[in-house]
Amino acid sequence: MTIQIAITGAAGFIGSSLALFLARLGHGVHACDWAERSGCTPLDTAPDSTQARLRADRLAILAKTPGIHLSHFDLAASGAFAAWLAQRQPDVVIHLAAQAGVRHSMQSPLDFVAPNLIGFAYVLDACHRQGVRQLLYASSSSVYGMRDSAPFMEEDRTDRPESFYAATKQANEAMAMAYHAQYGLRSLGMRFFTVYGPRGRPDMAPFLFAQAMRRQETITLFAKGELLRDFTYIDDTVAAIAALAGPDALWEGATVVNVGHHRPVSVNSFVKSLAQQLGVEPVIAYAAMQKADVKLTCASETRLLGMIGQWPDTPLEEGLSQFVSWLQDWDPLLKPA
Ligand SMILES: NC(=O)c1ccc[n+]([C@@H]2O[C@H](COP(=O)([O-])OP(=O)(O)OC[C@H]3O[C@@H](n4cnc5c(N)ncnc54)[C@H](O)[C@@H]3O)[C@@H](O)[C@H]2O)c1
To answer: 195 in helix, strand or coil?
Structure first.
């Protein structure tokens, strides 16, 4: 059965991959983002920035894919999302738009208020008022804060955020629970764990490390490279979201779920595998652990398995190989003639 699905944050890494995946399954995809076709957003107005170039490329792919209808507006502008939703009338809303990034939130916490808090409130309210059957939204492993024990279980405490970004995601979960308690809105917060792969975010470690290594630049690893991260390949993430949005997913009310594989690797091992795929010898400098970084992320998979059963589990080497071949093609690093 095909349905109508609204996706916010469609120019983003996860949103664009999800839109393509769902459209290829034959669903009607109503995709929105505040990024223009040039990839520029009100926070990033240089069309030649890596972020803008990537968003523009992702939007260009979506624009030529049958079944995807693209719109452009700021979710945090009063009435914008509600008007769009009323026009589109989707069965399901998958809300991925946000200002993302722990490090960015250290430097500019106020950039996160409008998209992550005000925008989220508008999404919730419009979904409730227009009787959307279910809302799925992006949360983050960062809600678990600083801890040494693993795996992270959904019922563990999440009231000690290490960054303002994490605080906005934790707030989103509380806001969604309140809309369920008050109005019965069905919602699922998906706590993603370091998603990587082709067309990935240029502010995240896989992209930054790969580009630095390709240029023979020194990469800085914090905490001796011993931080552990549960990396999740983009195709696995997208398959899990699609299954969670589908009619067979077993969840109800307002709840949250980890979308991660319970397979953390150290940043040292990650860099070693990435360097092997790139065929380079990394130049590494070590630095002390940074404020707002957490030592470990490790998802308990139990709840997700209970909701959707088995889901794809791409091995790290395979995922990195796909990422590297995309990156080498996307940015050949040609020297000027
Ligand atoms: N990628 C990860 O590893 C990861 C991990 C945990 C959580 N998440 C969350 O998953 C979601 C998607 O992440 P991503 O990696 O694709 O991020 P992304 O930055 O690539 O995509 C987010 C998109 O939201 C759009 N957006 C931001 N503010 C907007 C606004 N006011 N109006 C309309 N659009 C707006 C941006 O233009 C961007 O295209 C985010 O909510 C993020 O916080 C991602």
So the answer is: strand
